[in-house]
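Batch manifest, entry 17 of 40.
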Amino acid sequence: MSLSNGKIRTSYYIKTIDSIDDEMTDFLFSLGCYSGQKVTIISKLASNLIISIKDARYSIDEELAQAILV
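Output type: structure tokens
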């Protein structure tokens, strides 16, 4: 399941990043998105998700959320 299909206030563990775009993969890795990392969906606003990774909050768009498989 991709993170974009997740529920608000629910924590998930990242299984993998599914993207053929190396730039997107590198960006997500710089945020701390990698296999085994815990991610929590804080809220959904329009087509953006507010997520929490390692005590930091980030806003990501639908395309990034689709690439994160949990």
